Amino acid sequence: xxxxxxxxxxxxxxxxxxxxxxxxxxxxxxxxxxxxxxxxxxxxxxxxxxxxxxxxxxxxxxxxxxxxxxxxxxxxxxxxxxxxxxxxxxxxxxxxxxxxxxxxxxxxxxxxxxxxxxxxxxxxxxxxxxxxxxxxxxxxxxxxxxxxxxxxxxxxxxxxxxxxxxxxxxxxxxxxxxxxxxxxxxxxxxxxxxxxxxxxxxxxxxxxxxxxxxxxxxxxxxxxxxxxxxxxxxxxxxxxxxxxxxxxxxxxxxxxxxxxxxxxxxxxxxxxxx
Length: 274
What we know:
- This protein has helices spanning 23-36, 91-100, 184-193, 248-255, 259-272; strands spanning 15-19, 40-47, 60-61, 67-73, 78-82, 105-111, 127-133, 143-151, 156-162, 204-214, 226-229, 232-235, 245-246.
- The longest helix has 14 residues, at 23-36.
- With 274 residues, the chain is α+β, with helices and mostly antiparallel strands.
- It has one domain (4-272).
- It is 20% helix and 28% strand.
- The chain is built from 5 helices and 13 strands.
């Protein structure tokens, strides 16, 4: 599976968001949204080569992200990264901002399936996802198109919802094997059709805005009982979340991602050697 930077900076790069606006407008919109929701947020302009600039997101964190980076690209799109331990999870900010700022939004996920590779000792369940958002309400919020291939722990599941786009290879969705229905090459092609070079490092940076925020309380975080999106009140489970903050290298070792994956494979080969 193709990934950004061969997963050397995963999980930061496993999920990337994009908004078709200049970086300043995206940063201002994100900052205003945070402050309306009671989060104490500050912004700072940054300029550094990609991918080293991603280190500014450390430490990675469970629960609500506290560091979010919006980066200019070599096109009209601005990229979004966040410091989540499990990945950036850009769906909510990209959906909200594309609606309130009046632009297109995209989220892209490329996560190789590695649980079987490491015999269940570590690794992640694989997932490929393409989501396209628009500025207007659709049948479901402002989702225009979603294509998803995800391993749910027992088998691969494929789905495609919304309005098919002219650049899609829709005949591929009828392939017998689910893993052939949507590939990382197809994800890359769909993004490229919109002007996004998803897996090309030179596409990103160097100028961006880093937004830092603090949780509104200490101790375990409790998600809100409900939230309102586009006039629709959505209820969510309200269980406290124990918060962890870890360096990128520690997250990679825990889940056998990037450089840590190669180390684990070498260890397994040595143990099996006669």
